[in-house]
Automatic annotation (TrEMBL):
Native source organism of the sequence: Evansella cellulosilytica (strain ATCC 21833 / DSM 2522 / FERM P-1141 / JCM 9156 / N-4) (Bacillus cellulosilyticus)
Active site: 23
Chain residues that bind Mg(2+) 2: 105, 107, 120, 123
UniProt-recorded name of the protein: Nucleoside triphosphate/diphosphate phosphatase
HAMAP family: Ntdp
Length: 175
């Protein structure tokens, strides 16, 4: 698999199961790019929704994408600590256009004290029916929720103390 080069500026695109473009983040600077993981940084970037709405992120963020797991993690640096927004979705792919993944609705929000909340189960149930998610996908996603919660409680990967801060310092060197 191809992967973005360190220091390059890429677009991130999420899709829904039916192939429709869901959301586009205008720019993310690649801090580490391998065939297995991509770590990027951005700050106050424009986000385009599929319905045409646009909004700007409010704070610096470190994004963690993996080719081996069905989730990605965004660590947002706020005044009162680091918040994480975790998207359940396919492992990433990358082409010259963008880093891409399919978003499967379920999200986990993690607070600075490492408590967390599973979000959007109703949206998942609705889209599962509307888009006919295969049973195998649902099984993978439920396992991935458990795996992600395990990472959070074990402080593994992007939840490891100092991870977001380290990559944020690297991000500042490219700005």
């Amino acid at each position: 698999m191809r992967f973005p080069q360190t220091g390059s500026n890429i677009i991130v695109q999420s899709y829904k199961h039916n192939g429709i473009l869901h959301r586009v983040w205008e720019e993310t600077i690649i801090l580490k790019g391998t065939s297995h993981e991509v770590i990027g940084g951005n700050d106050r970037i424009m986000v385009q929704e599929s319905d045409g709405r646009q909004w700007r992120t409010r704070e610096p963020a470190i994004c963690y994408f993996t080719a081996d797991h069905w989730f990605n993690v965004i660590g947002m640096l706020r005044n009162d600590g680091i918040y994480y927004y975790c998207n359940l979705g396919t492992p990433f792919t990358y082409d010259e256009e963008a880093l891409k993944y399919i978003d499967y609705d379920l999200d986990i929000k993690v607070f600075p004290d490492k408590t967390y909340k599973l979000l959007d189960e109703d949206e998942f149930t609705l889209h599962k029916q509307q888009m006919n998610y295969p049973e195998e996908v649902e099984i993978i996603l439920r396992r991935s929720v458990d795996e992600l919660i395990s990472w959070i409680t074990q402080k593994k990967g992007p939840f490891e103390p100092g991870f977001v801060e380290y990559w944020y310092e690297r991000f500042l060197q490219y700005r």
